[in-house]
Amino acid sequence: MSYTSNGFTDIKFHEEIIFERSRPGRCAYSLPAKDLTGVADLIPADLRRKELDLPELSEIDVVRHYTRLSTYNFSIDHTFYPLGSCTMKYNPKINEKMARLSAFTDLHPETPLDRAQGTLKMMFDLQHMLAEVSGFAEVSLNPAAGAHGEYTGLGVVRKYHQKRGDLKRKKVIIPDSAHGTNPASCAVNGFEAVVLESGPDGKICLDCLKGMLNDEVAAIMLTNPNTLGVFETDICAITKACHDAGALVYGDGANLNAIMGVARPGDMGIDVMHFNLHKTFSTPHGGGGPGSGPVGVAKHLVEFLPNPVVRKVGDRYEFALLKDSMGRVRSFYGNVGIALRAYVYLLELGKEHIAEVAEHAVLNANYIKAKLKDVYNVKYSNDTLHETVFDDSKLPNHVTTMDVAKGLIDRGYHPPTVYFPLIVHGALMVEPTETESKETMDGFIDALKDIAEKAASDPQSILNAPTKTYIKRPDETLAARKPVLKYGAEK
Ligand SMILES: Cc1ncc(COP(=O)(O)O)c(C=O)c1O
Hints:
The chain has 16 helices and 12 strands. It has helices spanning 11-15, 59-70, 93-99, 102-105, 117-134, 146-163, 181-188, 206-212, 235-244, 277-280, 336-349, 354-372, 401-410, 438-457, 459-463, 476-481, and strands at residues 138-140, 171-175, 192-196, 217-223, 248-253, 272-275, 295-297, 309-313, 316-320, 388-390, 417-418, 428-430. Helix 3 crosses helix 11. 40% of the residues are buried. Residues 85-86, 145-147, 179, 181, 223, 227, 252, 254, 276, 288, 291, 293 line the site of pyridoxal-5'-phosphate.
């Protein structure tokens, strides 16, 4: 017997898969008898199954099986999920309802444009809303995730330099606080990522950057506010220095939720930026694929956007193909259902309330920081915006960030992002988002204080955590590199 955080007590119940619960002849539903003579002949013989092994269960067993499985994952609908940088923002249910309207779901991608004007209008309007919020000339909805947006945006940078015949520019400068997808996106675009060390305050050192700029630099790729949650106050001087040297400025827009409605990246001189719709505009987090990472560009880069772009000609919405496009990045037109959720979110929020999202996100992060900074070390003491990075250096008895993360699971919380950004040793990066209440954050703060107190008085209880989960402490590297995804494969 074991007790788990989701309340199930029967270990056998945990281990059985649906085929093991099957009993011959048991059934949940009987289909009405139907004459199917000749139907099988419609399927070529070599495609017909010889046998079909399906589990046989009663309805209640099926319901319990899947309801139980649904509780195995932490989710934003289940509990507080304070992942810094990854931003697990609440997904309002109205978004889901609208995205399920058959007028959208029944539309085939090959539908003639005359019959898809509603969806095209939604895409066109969303492009404009995103452009307005961020200060860019045009936005493409094609990329399928933030990282995919990076790939696309750097493709725009590549195409810009190619068109000018400036082929020497092969380097992209990236601060050492950047997300790992940044250098990866450079590599797949044929650029060389060059690391820029952060200054002592965690920000970009302007003079260091100036020293690195030359006629081989294609762009700088920066995140603002950066992954410490710190706003780059020199941003206008940074973009000017890059432009003076003939380089472009790529903005990783993952943290737009910290400033939207208050300041616009386009106005700061950023040339191209991706949005993570899941972070800022409340769509489900796409897991690197089924998400959406639109790309916005300044006027001088519009001609290089990926094809196709949605344009309005008279009263009609159309797909245009740009001659100098960086290419296609997606079959058809991106994840339209995800774009639709962001569109609903923006309409529901209304232009006049957009800034409140950023203000509350910043307030919440600073509340947690103020309550915990005496217990967990904060390496960089700058003012932070929507997220805050603690570390484990104040914890006694060799209790580390990983132990804190496991201790939080026992207390019913998803751990924050750990060991990122790399410039903070033992980082614990917390982002509450604007949707969490003071009571939820207070519970989380108490849990972190309790863990720090136990680290001193009863360290073993933290070093042994989690005690309430089905799987305890897997080998993190093996679990990531060689996950056992097939039932029975581990036996
Ligand atoms: C700063 C930053 N940039 C880029 C990404 C990549 O975004 P996505 O997860 O949508 O691919 C992330 C993801 O969490 C991020 O935090």
